[in-house]
Each structure stands twice: as structure tokens, then as C-alpha cells.
Amino acid sequence: MDLQSWRNELLSSILLWALVLGVITAVPSVIMALRDDMVSVAIIDTLAILWAAAIWRLKSLSFVARSWNLLLIIYLIGLFFFFKIGPVSQIYLMAVPVLGALLLGLRPAVYALVLNAVTLLTLGYIFNVNLQFDRFQDQPFVRWVIITLNFTFISAVITVSCGVLLRRLEASLKSQLQISLSLQKEQASLKKANEELRLISAAVENLNDIVMITDSDLNNGGPHIVFVNKAFERTTGYSRNETVGLNPRMLQGDASETDDLGRIREAIASQKSVRAEFINYTKSGDEFWLEADIQPIIDRDGHCTHYVAVERDITDRKRAESDIYRLAFFDVLTGLPNRRLLRDRLSILLATAQRTGIFSAVLFIDLDHFKTINDARGHAIGDALLVEVANRLTSILREVDTVARIGGDEFVVLIDHLDLNMENASRIALTVAEKIRNALAMPFEIEDQIYSSACSIGVTLLPKATQTVDDLLRESDTAMYRAKSAGRNQIAFFEGAMQAEVEQRLTLERDLSRALDLCELRMVMQAQVDQDGTPVGAELLMRWTKTNGEFVSPAVFIPLAEESGLILKLGDWVLHQACEIVNQLRTHGWMFPVSVNVSPKQFRQQDFVEKVRDILAAHHLSGEEFVFEVTEGLFINDMQETIARMNALAALGIRFSIDDFGTGYSSLFYLKRLPLYELKIDKSFVQDIPGDANDTAIVRLILSMAKHLGLRVVAEGVETPEQAAYLTENACDCMQGFLFSRPASFQDWLVKQGSAP
Fold first, then answer.
1. Is the pLDDT of residue 653 over 90?
2. Which pTM value belongs to this model?
3. Where are the transmembrane segments (predicted)?
4. Would residue 620 be called left, alpha or beta, if left means φ above 0 and alpha means ψ between -120 and 50 degrees?
5. What mean pLDDT is predicted for residues 710-731?
6. Neighbour-count burial of 627, counting CB atoms closer than 10 A to its CB (0-12 exposed, 13-18 middle, 19+ buried)
């Protein structure tokens, strides 16, 4: 409350009590006045009470107006009593400056004092008012000066005392108000600070990140933990009571990186902030990764009092980074480096070799017949075999060498720092390659089964002039294919001629893909004759002569078509050509069946049966006009599906012949189960009969077995009368070879043979 508010309340209280006490005192006063015939006194009392009541009720008036009205009432009453009663008036007149000092301040009170003094001196002297003061009767002016001075003195003392007191009170109130306002501000600030502190404390306590505060005492086993939040307890398993007072090193272990921890200690010792990632351990001994931001807390004097560490568990991120790294640079199945990491290490190895001149080697390893195991036993066994191969390679090589799996059953080995001499380096590389070949040739035991998996290895040395990483991989791959073409389970070194062969092969593959469009391919036929030399069948063969007159051997382009997938397109074309030839044969009276070679890849097409049916229908032929020659390799994989497809084709009238019988996967089991028509004895067995006892025995055995199984036999490669005579003597059904006819186009064959007799 300020001074003005206090004066307002004081004025209201004075008016209220003046009314109450005035009414109480006015009644006897009026009665006495009326009894003594002092009507004017009664009137004045009544008017004063009514005036005071009006002032009390009219609160719309300003405080100053109400105050002056009150002072005026008291002054007029005092003035009235001054004439009527005498000395009593001085009490009223004295009240005017005193109340003025209380209500309006010291200056209005002084005005009231002056007014009282002038009133006493002037009116008292002029009207010679009787104030019961008998001295100086003969000197009235002096007498009123003395009265006025004494009255004014006492009034002034009281008035000034009240004014000074009120000023001091006002100053005290202002001071108290300022103190109160300051306290209110401080209280509000303190309340706000407490609220902020509570919020900060709650936030820190419930953060998902770990918050740890330590003191700055780096001696006596310090720093010591003074605070940890709930996230710390959840992550580490330690409670706050177990942790406070201990060193944060309690969370470290064997896997904690000493370099990172040393960097943290150095930063703390120099009172600097630091960020680091490191491994800690939970109470149960489990590892977890932390990312920590550590800041020193500096007081106003610039001294470090504490350290605060905000840490977050980044174990999942680290695992994800590790997984991403493994996926990016390592083979998922074997854990070996993949192609990307291999190229990176190979570039480093090549740069080192070019700088030092020390030869190193790249070995390209491909497992032989791995697809056979994978298809026959399933991918699970194949994957297990690859893992065993990876383990075996890793175990026999040095730690500085690199073993990588770049896809499928292909592995690459980098042999580092062999020798400064190229011949010595080649000899060491060959020794290592031979060691690998022998190791992989040893049987693998997988799920209590024994599997064999030889390998073909291509080797190239580095460095060479202008050699790149791609060159090294291409050279070793080319050498590996040379090893495969040499009979598999071989080791071959890269030579410049190999690259030329590869480029020639690519050119040949491109030309073969365009050969049909350029009409460079044609079909020729070679007759199959009976014992009398009469044609009883014919085999259709494909020939390729380029537009420039260059002849390409079937032994070259047929395997190329198989590997590139072009055999499917060529196979469809051959079937159409065979149908046209059969129709022309029928036109000239030749009714024997025509043999067509069908590759395993062509046969395994899902729609092969439907495709054959549609082609036969398009040419208005039945399947009885054809014999499909297949190799024994067709029966190695998925026997049930092969049998089902052969039966479906046999239902169309097509008969089956096993080409090159005896040179591949010969098994009496499939001879019994398959819908076969004939066997073709490979020319490698025929060419040395009857002089070679082994070949003679094999041919006789095949003829005997076929007779008992009810199968027709065709002998290929018959070139001499002695061969033909022997085959005839042993009841061979049919012969085919240069002795009887060479492969020729249908028109040439027809010119030679003419129409059927």
C-alpha cells in the first residue's frame, strides 16, 4: 500500500468516526444548547454532521476536495466556537493544520497554520474575543500576539511532527514498496529458476541419452562420479548408489580402445571438451558402444569444478555399420573378401609391385563340375561345399595373401611379394597353385557324404607395363578357361595368345548370332546304311560358312553356341530345317527317319515338348519321322523330369538315340528306364577295330548289350572296309561314316543317291 492509499483510508476512517462520535456528542450538546437558548450551537452542530455525512457519502469527489471540505468544516466550527465559547475553539483550529498535514501534506498544513494565526490575531484583536487570558488587558494587540504565537507554536510543533512523520512514513513505505517489489521479483525469479531447475532435472533424469557428471579431482583415483541419470542405470545395469564416488573407468574392459581413452584423459587434464566413441561394459559384462561429448564446467573464477558427459548408446549403429561394411566388402556365404574389396586390395598390390619391382601373382580358381553337385544335391550342399573350399584355401595360404570369392564357384587368390626375378616368381606361383589344386582335390565330407571337387586355376603375374586391375582379372580368368579347355583340374599361366583367343571367341560369338540372318548356316545330311549299304536313315548336321568363304568347324561353334545360349535359337531353326528335308525326302520316295541332335540345354526348356508339337504340326509331319540324338550328360541331372519329357515326346512318335555312347556317364540304370530306340557307338571305339583288342571288346559288348535290351545300334566313323566287315559280322544294325557317304547338302545327296528304288 502507498501513502496516498493510506491517506484515503485515513480520510474515510476520520469521516466515519466523526459522524459516529459527532452524532453521539451532538445529541446532548444540542439539548443543552436549546435549554440554554443557544439555538445557533444546535444548528451549527447539526449542519456540521450533515456536511460530514455528505462528504462521507460522495466518494465520487476527489480526495483533495473531500479533504479540504473536512478541514473547512473543522475550521468553521472552530471559528464559530471562537466567537461563541472562546478557548474551546482553539482545539478545532489546531486540528485543521494537524489533519492537513496528515491528509494533504506539510505544505497545506503550513497554509492552515498561517490561516489560524491570521484568524486568531485579526479576529481576536478586532472583535476582542474573550479567551480567558487576563494579562495585558491594557495592551490588547500584544495580548493577541502572545496568544497567537503560543497557539501557533504548539500547532506548528504538532503539525510539523505529523508532517515529518508522514514524510518518513512515506519514504519508509516507498522503501518497503521497493523492497517488496524487489522481493516479489526475486521470488518470481526464484520460482522461475526453481521451475526451470525442476524441468532441467526432470529432462536430464528422463533423457534417453546417458548423462554423467564427475568432479574435477584428477588425483586420488579421480575423477569421481557425482551424478548419473536413469538412462545410465538402464544401459549399464549399475544403480546410482553403486556408481557415485567411483571412477568412470569401472565401465572399461579388454575391448576398450586405449587410444580413444588416452585422448579423453588428455582433454580432461587440459580442461578441454572432447568427443569420442569407445566400448564400455555393462554390469553383466556385455559390450556396448558409446558416443560421448565431454565438457568441462567452469565457475566464475575460471576454475573447472566438474565434467559433464552426455553419452548415447550407438551399439546398433556400430552393428549396422559393421553389417554394411561386411555386405559391401565381404561375401555373405563364406566371409571372404568380395569383388569390391578384391579390386581395392589388387590395386594396392599392383601399385606396390610397380613401385618395388617385386613380382606377385593372381590366381583365378574355378571349381570343376560344381554345377553338377549343386543341381544334384541342392544349393544347401553346394553352399556348404563353397564354405569348406573357402576354409581350406584360407588355411593353406599366408595371412598376407588374400582369398576372395567373386561369385558362384569362382575364387581369386592374391599371392604377395614372390620374388624380384620373374622366373623365380613364376616357379613359386606354380608351387602355390599346385598346393591349392591338390588341397581342393582332396574329398570333402558334408553331412556324412563324401564329395570331390577338383579345380582349374589360371595364373598371371604382376607387374607388367600399363597393367591395370581389370587386366589382371581378365588375364587370370582367361588362363583359367585355358586350364578348363585343357581337360580341367589343370593349372595354366596367362600368355598373350590367350587374350587373342578370347577376343577371337567374342568375335566368333557375335558373328554366330548374326549367321542365321545372313543365311550362313546350312544343314547337311550323312546317310546311315544297313549291312547291304542301303540308306536306312540319315543324320542332319549343321555347317557354317561365312559370307567371306571362311569355314567354321562345328567342333568350334557348337560348344560356343551351348555356352552363349545361342543353341536355343539354332535348335529351333534346325527342327524347321529337318521338317523341310523330311518332306523333300518323302517327295522323292525316301521313307527312312532323320536323326537330329538335341542339346541338353535345348531339351530342358520348359516348353520344349509344346514347341516340337507346334513345329511338327506346322509342317504336317508326325514324330515318327524323327530320331532325337541326345548325349549321356542329359541324364545326370533331374532324371525324373528328363524321363517325363522323353515320354511326352515319345507319345508324339519321336524316337531317341544316345549319341557317343560309352564316352560319358554310361549307366545301365537309365538304359532300362528310358524310352530309347538306338545306341550310337562313338567313332573313337570304331576307328581302331578290329586291330585294337580293347576297342573290339567294347564294341562287341555294346552290340551284345543292345541286342538283349532290344535297342538298335548305329556305328559312327566307319571309314574302312575292315571296320564295316567286322561290324556286319557282329550284327550291327546300321553304319555311318565316310566309307559310305560324306556329309552333303540335301540336293547333293539326292544327286548322288537319286530317288528311292
1. yes
2. 0.47
3. 12-32, 38-56, 63-83, 111-129, 141-166
4. left
5. 91
6. buried
